[in-house]
Amino acid sequence: MMIYDFKVKNMKNEDVSLEKYKGKVLLIVNTAPKCGFAPQYEGLEKLYETYGGKDFELLDFPSNQFMNQAPGTNEEIKEFCELTYGTKFETFSKIDVNGKDAIPLYKYLKENGPKELKGTEKEEGFLRNMLFGNKIKWNFTKFLVDKDGKIVKRFSPGFKPEDIEKYIKELVA
After folding, report:
1. Spatial CA neighbour of 116 closest among 102, 108, 127, 125
2. Most buried residue among 11, 46, 58, 107 by CB atoms closer than 10 A?
3. Going by DSSP bridges, is the β-strand pair 56-62/25-31 parallel, antiparallel, or unpaired?
4. Residues 130-147: b if buried by 16+ CB within 10 A, e if exposed
5. In this structure, what are the phi and psi dihedrals at residue 62, rounded to the nearest 5 degrees?
6. Which Pfam families match (predicted)?
7. Is the pTM of this model over 0.85?
8. pLDDT in tens, 64-99
9. Which domains are seen in the chain, by residue range?
C-alpha cells in the first residue's frame, strides 16, 4: 500500500484520490483554527505560495480532536482560514487523526512514517517524553512526503513551517 492508494474527503464530502498528487512533494498537516499554533497557517501559506503547483502541494486536514479547536462546519473553517490567514492551499473535510474513527490516511501516516520526530531545541526534552510514538499528540503535526510517496519526515506541532522549507527545497529540486 502507498500513500497514493488512499481517498480522502474534500470540503464537499466528495472522495478525492491522492493519486492526483503522484510525483509531487506533499506536506500533510492536521490543523485547527482555534489552536495556539494557528498562526502557523501564515507560514504554511508562504510555503505553498513559494513551492505550490507543479512539484509541491500542501494538504490541510482540520481536526477537532484536541480540545475542540476546530469547531464549525468545513465551510466555516475554510472561510475563517482564507479570511484570517489568506490560505489558498487545499483544505479537506474535518477528520479524526487518532482512535477508531481516524481516517485510513492518518493510520497509514502514523504506522509508516518516521518514528523520529523533528522538533525545536526548546521542545527537545518534551518530545522525548511525550511526542514519540505513533499517536498524533496535537494539532499542526506535519508529515513530509517525497515525490515517490515515501514519508520522509514527521514534524512536531511546534516546528514552524519556515523551518521545514529547507527539507521541501531539497525534495523539489
Report:
1. 127
2. 58
3. parallel
4. ebeeeebbbbbbbbbbbe
5. -60, 140
6. GSHPx
7. yes
8. 999 999 999 999 999 999 999 999 999 999 999 999
9. 3-172 (3.40.30.10)
